[in-house]
Design brief:
Strand content: 25-35%
Bound molecules: uridine-5'-diphosphate
Largest sheet: 6 strands, antiparallel
CATH superfamily of the largest domain: ATP-grasp fold, B domain
Distance between the termini: 22 Å
CATH class of the largest domain: Alpha Beta
CATH topology of the largest domain: D-amino Acid Aminotransferase, Chain A, domain 1
Number of helices: 6
Order of helices and strands: EEEEEHEEEHEEHHEEEHH
Number of domains: 2
Length: 254
């Protein structure tokens, strides 16, 4: 297929013009960044795994009625998505203390939270994604109070569903980040889940051992990053048990 026009290049993905108006092709790279781009690296096969994992999770969420931008996976590294106007707010949902929450409040990682916490961050690389409140979001016009109600209830629904789904395969969903976008059908606006859901933006711990199966392995130089992502895919049943280790090979995908 002829290479399409590139719309945007992010840290882990590239967006190309899609085959029809209102669509985009989302290409998953192996590049990884952390700490506001101060740490960069390549995790071989990550793009292939995240493409497949995100397809699987977005499809399951679509099945329970959560609207998403996902249309279909096109190949190993690309998926077709609806073009949305990204709301510049990152929504983080937490079930267990980890990462910046542990740091900010001097709490130990691994403490289960009595109730899920939802946090908002302004999506801005230049400003290093500052934490914001609903007041900032509505005052600066990024979303209305009604939009926020919808975003909050969708985020909690995603959390409940994904927590159960991962629990079923022996994984604790510690926290994750979501992004939402606006879609117009004529002049009717809908808010849908966008971006990706993968070990790049979730913390996933083995239920028994607390072993990290996510990007913290890269952030903290723990090694075995690709293997951890592969383990997540294997447990979700989207990587053949005896599949080849070579992530470039077509047999990885079902
Ligand atoms: N996260 C993300 N992108 C960001 C910041 C956070 O995907 O720009 C995810 C991260 O992978 C984790 C959750 O959001 O699953 C909470 O991250 P935290 O605030 O603890 O920040 P971190 O420790 O990753 O800096």
């Amino acid at each position: 297929m002829a290479r399409r026009r590139q719309i945007f290049e992010g840290k882990a993905k590239v967006l190309f013009e899609g085959p029809e108006p209102g669509t985009l092709v989302q290409y998953f790279k192996d590049d990884a960044t952390a700490f506001d781009n101060r740490k960069t690296g390549v995790i071989t096969g990550k793009g292939v795994l995240n493409n497949r994992i995100s397809e699987y999770l977005m499809t399951k969420l679509g099945d329970i009625g959560v609207p998403t931008h996902f249309v279909r996976r096109l190949n190993m590294r690309e998926q077709l998505v609806r073009e949305v106007e990204i709301i510049p707010v990152e929504v983080v949902v937490r079930n267990v203390v980890a990462g910046s929450l542990a740091k900010r409040f001097g709490m130990s990682e691994g403490t289960a939270l009595p109730r899920s916490i939802v946090e908002y961050y302004y999506k801005s690389d230049e400003l290093n994604d500052p934490m914001i409140t609903e007041e900032h979001i509505t005052a600066f016009g990024w979303a209305t109070p009604q939009d926020l109600d919808e975003i909050m209830s969708m985020s909690l629904r995603v959390n409940d569903f994904l927590s159960g789904l991962f629990l079923g395969v022996g994984i604790r969903l510690v926290d994750f980040k979501l992004e939402f976008g606006r879609l117009w059908d004529n002049d009717q606006m809908r808010i849908v889940l966008a971006d990706e859901i993968s070990p790049d933006n979730c913390r996933l711990w083995d239920m028994q051992t607390d072993e990290k199966l996510d990007k913290d392995r890269f952030r903290r130089d723990m090694g075995g990053v690709g293997e951890a992502y592969q383990e997540v895919a294997r447990r979700l049943g989207i990587l053949p048990e005896s599949g080849p280790r070579d992530l470039q090979g077509p047999a990885v995908m079902q």
